[in-house]
Amino acid sequence: MPSYNTDELKKRFIVIEGIDGAGTTTQMKILAENLRARGYRCVTTAEPTLGPIGKLIRSILSGERCVAPSTVAYLFASDRNEHLFGSNGIVEQVESGSIVISDRYALSSLAYQGLTCGEELPLRLNGSFPAPGLTLLFDIDPEIAIARIKRRPQKEIYETLEFQKHVSNMYRTMADKLQSQGWNIVHIEANADIDTVRREVFLKVFGFLGADTTR
Prior knowledge:
The chain is of the alpha/beta class. The protein is 54% helix and 13% strand. A five-stranded parallel β-sheet has the order 2-3-1-4-5, sandwiched between helices.
């Protein structure tokens, strides 16, 4: 594992997690725009990444390719390692003074791959990755999330109501496990409208950053 500054990650690395259709991407964009407007240096990113491994994963999720569930777990861990430690990755961005917000990180692998290939492999593959300073876990009714997904032009292999119900439960189980290991995970009620969720996200993130929430 490459060397990195744990303290800087704890100060500036934020992750937004949740099942498909939870609104993580929308809220990440809103949050980043607001932070930049307040003068913060802010970088947004996502997993799977847009790198070579991430693109392969995306082709699998789209149904274009078919591989073993354990292969997907290994690919996600490899993509995450490059995401963290590769050129212009999370560690480099954080150590340069930027706040990094990622749409998904290790908790998503524990939830999704924990279901598809069992808990042991994802826990082992992701056990040495550093904890973010703050993880926001969007809690949403899977039926509401699936209704949002139906508006999309394309669906992925995991985007079924039954599977997302199981993922939602696994997210909570794995979040509890990571919290017991010291991860700072905050639950966000994501069934509400965009602006209500936005206010809750701002409150938690600005509190984490020690920012003035009245501006």
